[in-house]
Structure formats: C-alpha cells, structure tokens
Sequence to fold (519 residues):
Amino acid sequence: MSKLLRELRPVYVVGIGWHRYQNPSDTSYVTLGLTAIRAALADARIEWPVVESTYIGTALLGMAAGRAMLKHLGASGKPLVHIENASASGSAAFRHACIEVASGISDVVLAVGCDKRNPVVRGFTRTGIDNLADDAIVPFTHFALLTNEYATRHRVKPEDIALVAVKNHGNGAKNPNAQRQKARTLEEVLGGKPISGTLTALQCCPVGEGAAAVIVASADAIRRYGIDSSRAIRVASSAAASERPGSASDADATLTRETIQRALHEAQITANDLDVLEIHDAFTIEELLYTEAAGLCPDGAAVHALKAGEFHIGGRCAVSASGGLIAMGHPIGPTGIGQIAEITLQLRREAGPRQQPNARTGLAHMVGLGSVCYAHVLQRDS
Amino acid sequence: MFEAPLPLLKPALYARGERTPVLLGGRCACGHIFFPMQTFGCERCGKFGEALQPMPLRGHGRLRAAATVHVHADEKRPTPFTVGTIALDDGPIIRTLLLDAPPDDAAPGTEVEAVFVEVDTADGSKALDLRFRPVKQ
Fold:
C-alpha cells in the first residue's frame, strides 16, 4: 500500500545556505552553487563526505551541470541527479531528497538549487500541435489575464492588487539574500513600467541567478554527527500534483488548493495553524489567488486580509516573509529550496528583522509551468 | 480581375465558416471537446487514435478576461497588442489575440466572435490569421 512521507521515518532540515539571488552577472554557476552548499554544510556543522546523495534543482544550466560543480567539494563518488520541473525544480529536488532519507536509503542528503538566466527551449512548444498565439501569451500575460478575471469577479482595483508587491518589497528589504532589497511605496509600484494588463514591473518577479541549499537528515544522522537537534526542523509533509483537465483559467489555483490541502492533511493541521507561508508569488495576483486557495481566507477576501495586515510579518500568517518571488527573486532552480531555507530560518527563530513572532509551522508552495505543484509543511518540535 | 483568396496562416487550426471562421477542434468518444484537434490522446480519458474525431467549433463565445501587453521580447509582435481568454460556445476555453483592445464597456462576459485579419507572413506574403472581437450589437 502506498504511504505518505509522514508515515516513513522522520526527516529534518539540518543545514541551510544561499548564494544571494542577484541580477545576471559573470559569476560562474559553480561559485553560486558552492557558496550555498558550503554555507549549508557550515550551518549543519558537518563535512561534505557525510552527504550521501545530492539532488540538483536546475532548469536553465543545461545537461550535466552538477558534477562539474560538486567535484570542487572533493569528489566523494556519491550519487547525484538533476531535477528539472520548471519553476518547481527546487521544490521537486527537495521532495526527492526527503523521500530518500525517509525511506532509509540515505541518512544525509543535499538538495541544491542553482541557476543562471539562460535561454532554453520550452519542451511543450515541441509537441507538434500548433497553437493560435501562445507566443503572445508569456507567463506575465497569462497572469495579467488572471488579474483581469479576478479583478472583475471580486470587484477589486489594480491598486488593491499592487499592495501585495508593497508588502513583499518591504520584506525583501530586510533579507540580505533577496535580489530586490528596496522597500517600495504603492505609488512606486503602480507608477513603474507597465508590463501586461494592469501588471507593472515591480509586480512581476525578477529572474536572475543564485543558489540555495538545504541538507536533510534522519534522527540517526543527527545523533551520529552531533548535529544540534534544537535547530533541526521536521519536514511534516510533502505533497505534489499536476494539472487535470478543467477550466483553463483557474487551473493554477485549483491545483494549489488540492496540493496544499493534501500537505496540510498529511501534517494533521489546518491553514489556521500556519505561521509562515512562502508562496509562488511570481506575480502579485498569485498571492491573492493562492492565499485563498490555501484556505487562509475565503475566496475574494485576500485583499481585505492583506489590508488588515493579516499577511504581514507580525500578522496572523506572514506570507512571503522572505520577500517572495517578487522581491527575493525567482532564479528558477533555487527558488523552491530557498523557500524551505527561509521557513527553516523562521521556525528556528533566526530570521532577525523579518522574524515572524513565535513561528512554529510553515508551508512552502511552488507552481511550475505545465502545471505542476508542490507543498511542504515544516514544523518545529516545540 | 479575379483575385485568389488569401491563404490561411494556420490552416491546421481554423477554416472559413458560414458566418464566422470555425476552429478545428476535436471530440473524444467520452464526450470531451478540445482544441486544437490532435490524436495523441484524450486529456480527460486517455483514449487515442480514432476515438478522437475532428469537430469544427463555432468561432463564437464569451470573453472571460483581456489584457493589453506593453512589453514583449519577440519583435515580430510589436506592442501594444491585446489578448483574451475566451470560453467558446462549444466548451473549450482558449486564449488568443483580440482584434483591438476592448473598449471599457467590453467587460468579461462580452459576446465575442472570430474574424480573419490580413497579416504578413515570414516570407513577406499576405495571409489570413484569426482574431476575436466583440460582436456588434
């Protein structure tokens, strides 16, 4: 019979690290990745040879980028695999690292996301089935259409939707790993470069470069290597799904609703238990759609909750305390792993000026083109 | 002087219809209606091959959303242009180009229809491509 992650042996996040997300530069991806991995090893206070297996979330580096990076840690001969799942590549790498530990196959596993902005062919454009004008509907236009639909259905204004960006830029200003670290006023967000529909530049995530790394371990490994168990954060659940046929226009929200519900159910909690939520807010509208889909508020009520401060740091549930994709950035492969690292930081109460008070439970959510969806719940023991 | 009618830019996707252009969709034996036509397999039930039969879809539906695009990397599509999400009367929801930015009163829910417009092809000749526009009352 099939099992949930929670029914296998416990998995803990024991080490986290980043290379700051940044605008495209001449920095080698090797430097980006190694910086994050070495930070995660130092955070866990373990040495590289202890790591038994590596999952590399990357969508833009091209074939076989991983060993050329990992070998500079001392080629340990351990297995590695690349995971491409569009925007959710890092989330997928993390899930499979967790499964490897939970199953008992390995005790210490690294999930690392690393990417640089490179043009890649999107496989789904090569199906051989023609389309009317898909080239005209790039992701920001997909979300501009959803913005228009949401604004009409719930009678909200562009300036209401833009408040998501004001909050998330404010959070990003407190995050040294964020690509955008500047607080923005509503006027700055609305007055920025128009992109598509009512979306302006500061309401769209920047795709740059960077890396994030997370080390997961079993309880056995925590004892064996003397890892500080008070800083180990339990992975309480892992859920993954892909789109089913239905209404094309609310596919991402429907998929999110189902995936987050499964993750909450597996963790034996409800949305009301979430203290921090890192969500796939690549565009402002997504945070509204997905906080509703997560069950944090009724459909159409996200703007109200946002205005009431419920999703700010210090509010009921801090949404995108890292700055989210909008401010922290969305380098693709690293993004989902960076979310796990941010939640770990929050649950350890080590998030400094962006700390959500008394954070005990957090959820990370990503959507990848296709669409695919991931949700992970992390929980501190006390 | 007789002028040959312009060719269609994407004849696998649409055809001339009686009143408006039709979209070349398909219908599965399970009843699922989809666009465009394909025989790889049904997204709802997985049947493939002859279970999937061509079905012309009326070029008529309701606008669900519209967005005018201001930034676009591909120079072959100069901005601004407007795209829409359209629920076709026959079921499928499609997204494609609108003829013009809808006027302020063309809110989601507006009745729209397909029309052909003359466009330049890659080799510099002319062809007809599909757009949607609000139905004139």
About this structure: The mean pLDDT of chain B is 92.
